[in-house]
Amino acid sequence: MKSHQIHLASRPTGMPTQENFKSVEVELPALKEGEVLIQNTWMSVDPYMRGRMIVSDSYIPPFELNEVMEGGAIGEVIESKNDQFPVGSKVSNISGWRTTFISDGGDLALLPAVGVPEQHFLGVIGMPGLTAWVGLFNVAKLKPTDTVFVSAASGAVGSVAVQIAKLHGCKVIGSVGSDEKAEAVKAMGADAVINYKKVENLTDALREAAPEGIDVYFENVGGDHLEAALNVLNPYGRIPVCGMIADYNAETPQPGPNNLLLINTKKLTVQGYIVMDYWDQYGEFVEQMGQWITEGKVTSEETVYNGLDNAAEAFIGLFEGKNKGKMLVKI
Amino acid sequence: MKSHQIHLASRPTGMPTQENFKSVEVELPALKEGEVLIQNTWMSVDPYMRGRMIVSDSYIPPFELNEVMEGGAIGEVIESKNDQFPVGSKVSNISGWRTTFISDGGDLALLPAVGVPEQHFLGVIGMPGLTAWVGLFNVAKLKPTDTVFVSAASGAVGSVAVQIAKLHGCKVIGSVGSDEKAEAVKAMGADAVINYKKVENLTDALREAAPEGIDVYFENVGGDHLEAALNVLNPYGRIPVCGMIADYNAETPQPGPNNLLLINTKKLTVQGYIVMDYWDQYGEFVEQMGQWITEGKVTSEETVYNGLDNAAEAFIGLFEGKNKGKMLVKI
Question: What is the pLDDT of residue B58?
């Protein structure tokens, strides 16, 4: 059995390019007792993977050069010597960027039976969805009376944050980089959406959308978005820091906003977090989110690239704003 | 009875100058029933007052132009028509920047009888001391195993933060702007002190002082100090933001550090706070601090300017690093 894999060919500086990736075929050995063979059907590309392409002081180790990359994927067991995972089982796994792989089951989870399309477990009801959930509830301690500003509001995490905050009773303002995405985010229920590429001054636009000020800024972007949010946040505002995508590909680190003193004068809380620390909430989250999806209260937008050899293009597309909602690769 | 007062003559841009202040004498009316006449003996100058000299979106209203300024002071009741405050009572008040004033008692507090010099109630056992206390315990949730970095470590708040953290069992690193201050902070028990004016790279100096990383950064300064702290903080590190004195007099707001993404990757919590929100802890604080002072476990350094007409010079001196410990004016 052959496995088609994408390896890290070189570490990017600035925006990743096709040259950083290479397509490789490897031969898999025969299954041993306790092992299963998985055929991946979907894989996820996520902005955080950019951090793993370089050597840094981050929360997860970097990808190895000339080794297969990793990431969330959904697959089907096609051969099994493990009773827990019979042939035909649908599993989520962290062995993306490859068509097939062998596992002893330790890194597999059977998909919960909540009646949603399997690829949703890479998005709205998977890691990105849980990231939005814990950012709002655990980190920002969301209250129904809050006005919430979500940057990258049409992205995998942002689009879920918008919808969860609306379901919680909040007023929600999103920011996006195109009118098309603005329409999509409005359709998800956002009270106002700012196309940041079209406004002269993001602070003014945000003030106009939220004359009462914002209470929570769901931080996906950094830079000018953080600056505007600090300006418009109300006293005791909270900033769950999910990511700062503006910084991921900067060849020279960009200076931060010049108004950080507002953290003091407005008594703000800025808190970085990482979803791995909150996996104990996945059960509760899946139950609630599964219900919301089947009731039509949460919708899931997906942008799909076909074929493993287009995975690098899909990944690079994340930083070019090519995805609406969750960016996926169908294998 | 005349009151000698310092009024705000104009609002500063950049560093305050003598021209922003003017010395005024006003005649006080006769006491009404329930009122007392206070003679101030000590007044405090604090960095936060810079924020009140301009019109901004801060937590306290700005000083009025051509009106007397305000601030913490200690005084003695010299005439009384209020049984709660008989003649001779020592009181803390917020009517600094003047020699005498009339009060109905609502803004006065009798000095607690803990046997320390009265001017300490403007410093180590007053607002600056409580600011250090709540920043470490309430905001940063200090643990004895933490390594703590305190900027402006010889200042009124910083010097208390250093000593409290040591008493709690922590390893403490301070930063100061002169060798003389470094000696003073070492004498307070700091494990290492960095003279930031003498090091080429603050991050390197901090890493050398804390090869194990820091867990808490007590933020008084901003700018390069925040950048270095972010670099050296351990995962789940905490930054209580007491102030950012580097920004107070900037004529053009300075960009923030270029490594804010570390808030996310290290899962840091950056939390602004203001001591007014924690006055309910003052009783517990005074009891503990009074004991520490009388036992010689906490020392208090004070820099004293004599005479109300030198108050502006004392205040400006805060931003020129002229104080060791608490900057006071003896009236």
Answer: 66
